[in-house]
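Translate sequence into structure tokens.
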Amino acid sequence: MSMINNLETIKGVMKFDSEDDFYHLQIIKRKKEHPELGSNSMIVKTYYIRSIEYLESKMPEIISLCNLHDARGCINLNRRSFEKIAYQMLIKVTNQIMNRDFKSVRKAYESVCGLHSSEQEKKWIIDIDEKNPDIITIISNTIKNCEPDRRVDKVVTILETKHGFHLITKPFNVAEFSKFHPDIDIHKDNPTILYIP
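Result follows.
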């Protein structure tokens, strides 16, 4: 299978309203490709993307590290706030210290970045595990016909994955959608694919 590079499409979705905004990007080795890993995944490197120019400048390094480690570059398209993450980290570290969980303190910032979005215009991921354009059309139409506002196309963009596609969408009524597609996964604040070797 050939490599996947969704940089150009992802750039069209990113928005920076202030110096406080950033996107959380990680290079991840997965147990699926590396059975020797002790856990489900291992973070090779993390980036805090503060501008499109910064992401573009880091892409050669990201591609090189992904190729070297047989890993994937994953980015969460729901923005983070440096200020909010700092406050959330303070809460998490305080709780860890009070619970005498001193070993976990070093991982607090990464953990909080993964959990706390500050995005006003949330983006969800619909994970389609087949390369069939007809399925994309069917699912896109189902989403459009879900509340709120059945007149608006809620699919923001489509990104290629290893075995299919990620539909990046605005929020919609999950109960309505699930009546038609009960087996399709909806991720409300997860990373999507930037690059796979």
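Note: Residues 124-190 form one domain.
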